[in-house]
Sequence to fold (384 residues):
Amino acid sequence: MEQGAMNIELDDKNVIVMKLLHYFITEKNYNPIILQGAENEIWLENMDEDYKIVRIVSNYIHNNEQFDFDMFKTKRIVRKIKKKTLSLNVNTLSIFLSLGDNVNLSSTKNIDCIMVNEEEDLKKNNIIKNIFPDLSKKLRFSEDGIQLFVKITNDINDHNKTDAEKVNEVFKIKKPYITYFLIAINIILYFIPILMTDFHQVINDFGIYAPYIRNGQIYRLFTGIFLHANVLHLAFNCYALYLLGIQLESFMGKLKYLIIYLFSGLTGALFSMIFTNNALSIGASGAIFGIMGSLVYFGYHYRVYLGNVIKTQIIPIIILNLAIGFLSSGIDNFAHIGGLIGGGLITMALGVKYKSSNSEIINGIILTLIFLAFTIYMAFLYQV
Fold:
């Protein structure tokens, strides 16, 4: 190890590259992207920053033709990243360390380019000063030479280890006790009325029915989401709850998951009151759609890991089920829509571990309260 370190050439460009890597990885939580054929350039991504992608290009570009080809290649890779991460715009910053004198450095839509010959260039650049104002200060180290290399390498390794531990903690499969509990409640509340009382009377007494809820039977907003019309209805919802619920409970934690389920069921019931009015509605599907909305929101924050799953599985399932609901009779699709929206908003308010900022959570709380107040007003006070 020591002999290998002594052979490292620490010229000015290598030092700048190391310091930039240290800043973007340890201070701004960027992660390296592994790309095939990308020689002498480093790609970093952080979808929560203004610049989602930062490129550090040490390859010598000696004319405009090479620069144009570099831009073409960059655009092609960025398009792939956009698809993978479900992002509309992927603002990219390309930092060039070696350009020929005849190269006309220019930026294009969503791709800004800067030239850095020495550290002083970073202090003068307007893009750096506006977006990364602390960068220049963070490039100051007391170490130099091999000690600098060791310091930066150790810091990056420690940061990556901590980051990996956080991801493992979030994605580690936990026992889905709340999901099992919710499934059990749904099953019990289906079979006990059949065995002990008049099943249809229980549906009439506890189902979601707007006129009775407006007259004071508020409990129906919650009891209705645990009742089902028949065994097929029960089996379908419990199976969907099992498949989706165990994932969300593991990702979000038990308490947050329970809040998401109940809040989504409530907003689904309120939407049912608003749009179906005098129709009786029952079932857990509004809450289940809320789970799907929550998974989409969670997956967006962890889209580097779940982007393909959200794009190829969760979103198509949502679209397919909503389409079936609109094309079929006897399905309360408005409860699905209300639950879907409610699930996404309440997840924003609760926050995604290690991803949501305080301002994002505050905005989520405000939007959730506005949405809830609006649906309550429409369900109880507004009459067409």
Summary: Strands lie at 31-33, 41-45, 53-57, 92-96, 111-115. Residues 145-171 form the longest helix (27 residues).
